[in-house]
Amino acid sequence: MWWRVTIITLAYLLLGAHFMRYGQVILCAAYASAPLLLFFKHPAITKLLQIVLVISAVLVWGMSSYNYIQMRITMGEPWYRLGAIMSAVTLFTLTAALCCNGVITKRAKVNPYD
Predict the structure, then answer these.
(1) CB 89 within 8 Å of CB 64
(2) What is the pTM of this model?
(3) In this structure, what are the phi and psi dihedrals at residue 85, rounded to the nearest 5 degrees?
(4) By the number of CB atoms within 10 A of the CB, which of 43, 44, 45, 79 ranks highest?
């Protein structure tokens, strides 16, 4: 289960770094500290983290990808590599969201009365 928590943490840190790039320190701190909620073993908290990852994959990475690619096309520069990188980042974030399901089921099997 440690690798699932590591993937979820890396996805949140990547989102935090994205917001830090634009000077949005509050959002950066919120995303960077969100994996600390995994210490609480309630399934609703893990489900909330999963929902935030899915929404962030669509809204943050999807919109950023579109904007970056449009900017590269407008400037007449190649954009294929950028599209591949942003697609990989989006897929990584969605994979982290899927890892949340594993955390929930693993915790339910370990101690169902927690």
Answers:
(1) no
(2) 0.86
(3) -65, -45
(4) 79
